[in-house]
Amino acid sequence: MLIDSHCHLDRLKAAPDHDSLDLLLTQAKARGVDYFLCVNVRQKGFREMQAKMAAFEQVFLSAGVHPLDVKEGLDTQELHQYIQDPKVVAIGETGLDYFYDDETKALQQQCFEQQIALAVEVNKPLIVHTRDAREDTIALLKAGHADKVGGVLHCFTENWEMAKAALDLGFYISVSGIVTFKNAGDLRSVIRKVPQDRLLVETDAPYLAPVPHRGQENQPAYVRDVAEFVAELRGESFEALAQATTQNFFNLFKDAATLVQR
Question: What pTM did the predictor assign?
Answer without folding.
Answer: 0.97
